[in-house]
Specification:
16 strands, five-stranded antiparallel sheet, 338 residues, flat, alpha+beta
């Protein structure tokens, strides 16, 4: 009689048997595949054999709590070493033309490398929002690239600027912006693309010319998009020369953005400057020793910024004292009536 199944004393299946012949036992080890992902796999790590950390975690600074914020103190010596390694760095920004399709960071790196042909040991790191951090092997190589402010790439204009500590691409501290300008009342013989761009170069770096100007459908003014430095001189009149002749042209700026003459950043006015507000509240910011023109100064009057801020602070204190005295007098009158 055949026994179809055979189990051992632990009720593990061993196999088939026939008659009274005892079959050779089959291994009872059962391997169960764990289909659940580990934490590292869930995070998308491609290589689980990661190298060990080069820093002793036990020697890291211990965070502290100030108010409701967790404060982390960095190692100053290591920061200074890292800062020295950035001496040969530049920051670049890609300005896409309106007719250009979106381009990947890898393609920008390829185009820049082909154009510059830099030496060994250089790299370019995308930072987001069109910004790039460029590391050069030598200061001489960095200065060679920096000698030109902007470079024409197939995908757009690539502008380089000096490297900045604490640079944040979400809030870049830059005084440069792009603005449309109008070159007023130029004679028709100057309506050539190169001639118009050469005139616009007197204001900044020309980026684009509108289709109406390019096709000469409107002769009142030529319209050009220009990259300008708001901290520099924005001329309202240019002197244009050619062989044996010269003339003046008027420049009109369309919708200039707000610019703070205090901190030198595009995006807000000096009146709404947070740095100025901190100093007025008694929390001084870095002292500005330079003398600069203030917004709204008549006839280009030059004012010392520090003295101006001190006078604002003094006036605010006087206003506050007067306000307190007014309320005290009102309260006193109320008490007398009661």
């Amino acid at each position: 009689m055949a026994t179809p199944f055979l189990f051992d004393q632990n009720r593990h299946y061993c196999g088939f048997t026939s008659g009274n012949k005892i079959p050779t036992p089959i291994s009872t080890t059962v391997t169960v595949e764990n289909k659940s992902k580990s934490y590292v796999k869930a995070l998308g790590a491609a290589d689980l054999n990661l190298p060990p950390l080069e820093v002793d975690v036990s020697k890291l600074s211990i965070p502290s709590l100030k108010g409701n914020e967790v404060v982390v103190t960095l190692n100053e010596e290591i920061y200074q070493q890292s800062l020295q390694e950035c001496r040969s760095n530049l920051i670049g920004r890609l300005l896409l033309s309106r007719v250009s399709d979106p381009v990947s960071a890898e393609e920008v790196c390829r185009q820049v490398t082909k154009l510059w042909n830099p030496g060994a040991g250089w790299r370019i790191v995308p930072l987001g929002r069109g910004f790039f951090d460029m590391h050069f092997a030598t200061i001489e190589e960095m200065q060679r690239i920096q000698s030109r402010i902007s470079w024409n790439l197939p995908c757009g204009l690539f502008r380089v600027m000096p490297w900045q500590a604490d640079f944040n691409p979400k809030a870049p501290k830059t005084s440069r912006t792009q603005v449309w300008i109008r070159i007023e009342h130029i004679s028709q013989e100057y309506w050539h693309t190169q001639l118009i761009l050469e005139i616009a170069r007197g204001v900044g770096v020309p980026l684009q010319m509108d289709s109406t100007t390019k096709n000469r459908r409107f002769g009142h003014f030529a319209r050009v998009l220009v990259d300008v430095d708001m901290a520099g001189n924005l001329p309202s009149v240019l002197w244009v020369e050619r062989k044996g002749h010269g003339f003046r042209v008027e420049i009109t700026y369309e919708k200039l953005p707000l610019f703070c003459s205090g901190c030198g950043i595009v995006g807000h006015s000096f009146t709404n400057c947070r740095a100025k507000s901190k100093q007025v509240r008694g929390k001084p910011v870095a002292k500005l020793d330079r003398v600069i023109p203030m917004e709204g100064a008549a006839n280009g009057r030059i004012v010392d910024l520090n003295k101006h801020l001190e006078s604002i602070r003094y006036r605010l204190m006087i206003d506050l004292v007067e306000l307190v005295l007014t309320w005290v007098l009102r309260l006193e009158k109320g008490w007398r009536r009661d």
